[in-house]
Amino acid sequence: MAVFRPECVLVTGGAGFIGSNYLRHMVTAHPNTRFITIDALTYAGNRTNLAGIEGASNFRFVHADITDADAVAQLFAHEPINAVVHFAAESHVDRSIASARSFVHTNVEGTRVLLDAARHAWAQVRRRTCRFHHISTDEVFGALGPEGVFTEETPYAPRSPYAASKAAADHLVRAWSVTHGLPAVITNTSNNYGPYQNPEKLIPLVISRALAGLPVPVYGKGEQVRDWLYVEDHVDALERVLLRGEIGRTYLIGAGQEVRNIDLVEQLLDTVDAQLDRPPQSSRRLITFVTDRPGHDFRYALDCSRMEEELGWTARHAIGGGLEKTVSWYLANTDWIQYAHKKLTQPTT
């Protein structure tokens, strides 16, 4: 399989959780490739996440919204962009249930703006010299029962406004690929965790509340099952897809490590206790069961054999080791947690 060697990569949402982990790796690993990131710096975007690469000669940060068609068009007009890696999205299910407007605007319209900009910019170049890599979620497939896995052929059945907006974006990418010949690839991933994740998400929420001795909320009885993927493993997979993935393909990226929410929370609290030299299991007393989220999907699981067979990728981090690394990072970066919490309370425009 030929290796794709991009000259200039536009990364959307690069100040967010997965995007910043991706950029910190890629900017260093590929010094001859130029990386530009566009980020609106909403509550979930934190420019300090990029502090380690801000001075790199092959990196540029642009403060703009992906729904701003003029700003996006200007980037394509003035930079030799021949690859897009599209992370930017509203991503918190609870927020989408409360109000879906920003999810439809960013996730659907923002994706449409990027697709059109890429289509027009790449109209006169050869298909194999460009690539649009769309990052999506396993939630577009709906929910599983106790058995079975999602595959690349599983019909879409989103059950939350967030999942529906990501499903719509996936469909737009496929439509532009078929109708306009846009060279695109899609990846759908399981739940990520690791450094720089916004504290409204489950794992950093549990860590930060355990540190403060505050109640740790768990929906329902905590019996929902998720496949947890350490973000460094996801970044490795995404790098392989960008460079060696087949145009027109969908790749599913998961760790094959299914854990019930309640078991994850208990293991996480025990890890915090161990690293802070607290009495074993003492923080489990903080667990507080709360009313379940509307339409809460029971279980997700992915068949990642295509990633393994075509691109030689498997997740390297077991859940125990990944949680230990994650807790260690948050304990060493309490200032970052405080800043991220402060951003959560600031009004967005």
Structure explained in plain terms:
With 349 residues, the chain is an alpha/beta fold. The protein has a domain at 8-193 and 231-255 and 295-317: 3-Layer(aba) Sandwich (Rossmann fold). It is built from 11 helices and 12 strands. A 7-stranded parallel sheet has the order 3-2-1-4-5-6-10, with helices on both faces. Strands 7-9-11 form a 3-stranded mixed sheet. Helix 5 links the parallel strand 5 (131-137) and strand 6 (184-189). Helix 1 packs across helix 7 (231-244) and helix 4 packs parallel to helix 5. The chain is globular. The protein starts with 7 loop residues before the first strand and ends with a helix.
- Helix fraction, binned, reads 40-55%
User: Treating each run of at least 4 consecutive H or I residues as one helix, how many helices?
Assistant: 11
Shape: globular
Query: Which architecture of the domain at 8-193 and 231-255 and 295-317 does the CATH hierarchy give at level 2?
Result: 3-Layer(aba) Sandwich
- SS-based class: alpha/beta
Largest sheet: 7 strands, parallel
Q: Name the CATH superfamily classification of the domain at 8-193 and 231-255 and 295-317.
A: NAD(P)-binding Rossmann-like Domain
**Element string (H = helix, E = strand):** EHEEHEHHEHEEHEEHEEHEHHH
